[in-house]
User: What shape does this take?
Amino acid sequence: MTLVIRAALNPTSLIADVRGIVHSVDPNQPLGAVHSMQNTVSEFVAPQRVTMLIAGLFATLALLLAMVGLYGVLSYSVARRSHEFGIRMALGAAKGDILRLIVAQGFRLALVGIVVGWRGSCLRRRQYITVAIKCG
Assistant: This one.
C-alpha cells in the first residue's frame, strides 16, 4: 500500500505524526519505508540521467575526434600546398587571400562530412523504424 501526503512543511518532520495516525486507524498496518516525493522521483529518473550523461560524454568525444580529424586533414593539405601558396604570394596574393582559401577548403570538408553523416543517419533511422514495425 502506498500513502501520499501533501504538506506545506518539511515532509521529514511529519513522519512521526503520520506513523501515529496510521497506527491509530489500524494498529496492525505497518508503515514501511518513508520517502519524500523528491527522493522518489529522483530514484525513478536516475537511470535516464546516467544514460544521458554517458550519451553526452560520447557525443563530446565524437566532436573532439571530428575536430582532431579535420585539423589533421587541413594541416596535411596546407603542408602539401605550401609551394602553391608561396607562388601565389610571390604573384601578389595577400595573406588574407591564402587564409580564405584554407578556411574555404575546411568548410567544404566539414560540409561534406555533415551531409554524408546526415544522409547516413536518415538511412539508419529508416532501418530502425522498419525493424520496430516488424517487431511490433
Summary: DSSP finds four helices and no strands in the chain.
